[in-house]
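lol so apparently i was supposed to do this last week
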Amino acid sequence: MLSIRLARKRDADTIAVMSRELIEAGLGWSWTPSRVARSILNRETNVVVADIDSRIAGFALMHYFEEHAHLLLFAVSRENRRQSVGRTLWTWLERTALVAGISTVHLEVRAGNTPAREFYRQIGFTEAETVRGYYRGVEAAIRMRRRVSNVAHSSR
Ligand SMILES: CC(C)(COP(=O)(O)OP(=O)(O)OC[C@H]1O[C@@H](n2cnc3c(N)ncnc32)[C@H](O)[C@@H]1OP(=O)(O)O)[C@@H](O)C(=O)NCCC(=O)NCCS
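anyway here it is w/ coenzyme A bound
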């Protein structure tokens, strides 16, 4: 069964390894266990995990500013993709952002990551600009944005 919860400090290692393998592949390892642990303890950041039968199947990390939030990490394990885990994580984040008074969520995604760009479009993000060399000077990012205003449309 799928359930969403806030991460605990003991989840930091698992999240960091998933980040290295599923998000940062080929770019080094910037989201180390200690950095993830600090984010879990940071009151201005939500680290959220999706459990399936008590095992972490996906996670997201979003940092809150005054009026916007930045979605920094988002991944679902390979074996659990296309089962709406990502969509369910996003719905949790969107509801929380609304309660926090956030109006816009921003993110960057690797330009070559076509599946993620399509996923983000499906959950309502639009592509705003390309940022050349964003990843270690070698890979471009697509900057995407989504207004957060209506829970009724949260699944699309
Ligand atoms: C992007 C990612 C998070 C999507 O997670 P997911 O749980 O598989 O997504 P969902 O099942 O909720 O998909 C929702 C919709 O998004 C779209 N979508 C998701 N994955 C897609 C893909 N590989 N190709 C095309 N569309 C896709 C589909 O419209 C899908 O709906 P459908 O399955 O009913 O057709 C996942 O593929 C992933 O972890 N990728 C590696 C890490 C990554 O790239 N993270 C984002 C950058 S930080």
